[in-house]
Give the backbone structure.
Amino acid sequence: PEHASSTHLKSTFGQGAHYQEPYRMYNLDVFEYELDETMALYGHIPFLVSHSVTGGTVGAFWFNPTETFVDIQEDSSSKHSKTHWMSESGIIDLFLLPGPTAEAMYEQYAHLTGRLALPPMFSLGYHQCRWNYKDERDVYQVHEKFEELDYPYDVLWLDIEHTDGKRYFTWDDNLFPHPAEMQEKLWHDGRRMVTIVDPHIKRDNKYYIHKEATSKGLYVKDNSGKKDFDGWCWPGSSSYVDFTNANARSWWADQFSYKKYQGSTPSLFTWNDMNEPSVFNGPEVSMQKDILNLDGIEHREWHNLYGMLFHRATGEGLVRRNQPDENIRPFVLSRAFFAGSQKYGAIWTGDNEAKWSHLEIAAPMLLSMNVGALSFVGADVGGFFGNPDAELMTRWMQAGSYTPFFRGHAHHDSARREPWMFGDETLIRLRHAAMARYALLPFWYTVFYQAAATGMPIMRTMWMQYPQTESLFSLDDQYLIGSDLLVKPVTGEGVTQTTVSFPSNDLWYDVDTSQVVPATTSTTGQDEAISVTVDSDIDKIPVYQRGGSIIPRKLRLRRSTHLMTKDPYTLYVALDKSQKAVGELYMDDEVSFDHDRRKNLALASFSVDFSSGNIANSVNVGSGWTETVSDLAAGRMVERIIVMGVDTAPKSISMAKEQLQFDYSAKSRVLVIRKPNVSALKNWQINITV
């Protein structure tokens, strides 16, 4: 990654090559990028993954942040590919990861480059953004409309126009005269805010950030090494902090303290843009390669590191600003990235367009990032440039709700596109998509925990879970969330039916109907994929739960994650062919570092064996919660268990000799156990008599 092309790398060299140029890795600010091209985009990870039925999964990490080209030559007769790596500078520093499974290989890569940082729960909700919400009144009107419509969202974003003349860490006093009060009003309703902070600093001697950075000598130098580099970006004439320097990064982190960043509060988080770095008057809209960092090393040597190190310093700033009674996890979105960016926050795919083709390429782009172990990723819902119609906006909201980072964003020349701008009928559809996301947040949070613990991606190409099913290897228009949800976004205009490739090893249950998809089971006993055409009108995105899995949801409609904290869970049990299922639920306070520093956490492991007549929970409680688990249990209740694929009506269901209420439908083969009065933080067993 990152390229606007298929996840499966196509040939760039030799007879019948798909592309005429090699894949290029050089972080650039690209305006309205082209599709199905090898051109460089905003971030890159020089990591190649190979998978085959006989060879398993292996990886090659080319640790070089300079401009790099990669040629791909395919040998169709042997099904092998050769790659040729060409970097402008640096040394040969190659790491070979032997796997031999995806799980083993990603554990090796995580050990090498770092693990995904567990984000705060709110960052997994819906984010509402545009360039720009123009003033406090605009912010309040948008927020109040979400409230009025019971439309869930968690974060409202402000782009560059909120500042005083593009001076970051400041506010336009005319447009945003009361920033702290504005944040507090939104936080009163459980919402956070994000402001943009870019790496270019306006060259204004009256601007305190520029004055201090200049006096401390923290800027990148020109090619003489004597003067601060002067480039052109949003503020006009700008200097650039040298984020390759540890002292400069530490100074930058200090700028996020509440005392220095006037008007900031604990509910304000950060967006890093233009960090490729973007220089409007530079070659290819970036820095000249011969300018120098503070150690006298040319820009060409560290170009692809700059954005990640900026991202890192910002995240460290949000941690450092915490007061003694605070322990809040950061949230920072970045556009540029490199290997290791998974440790610092979220990434988005940059300036996409409101076109069906850009919706179609979103999944392959996000999957390629996940192949590079960059999991907290998303594409701007609706497309940044242009104006989506109601159908495109609906399909994009549906697709975005099943990606790790979920944000709507738009250019200032685009028409307003808050969910209510498309009419009541479309509003209902958009809200339904957002509600589906919020219901699944316990599942999303658990998959993020699993990714942080194991290194496995969150959005998974099909081969990661089905390594012996060769027909799935090149698929990138459908994917898995973790191991248990299969998603096939609808990316075409006027589509009412969609073809999904189902791995035949497993049963698959439609998440909307709770019914098994027919004709998806292999009759040969071989690992294969069976293509089934399913209905997918405008109200439907095809999503399926794997048989043998248990997925936790929260079904009460709330307007933010903060309001959902103590809501009860509903467990969705999808039985496999043996009438069994297992699943996990990760729990902590969803906000702080206490899960790591104090071991305030728990992992519930659910299991169902219907043939043996039991549903059980075995919970592993962290040492920090051990003494208080009884008090916490009431806020982690299970209010309902829905079991799909049940062949026979139970005669009775009980726990500790107490009979439980249940309903069973022979037609749908769905069993619903109501009010079991059990906590996810307690061990328990429910007995079923058939």
Summary: The mean pLDDT is 97. The radius of gyration is 25 Å. Residues 356-371 form the longest helix (16 residues). The chain has 13 helices and 35 strands.
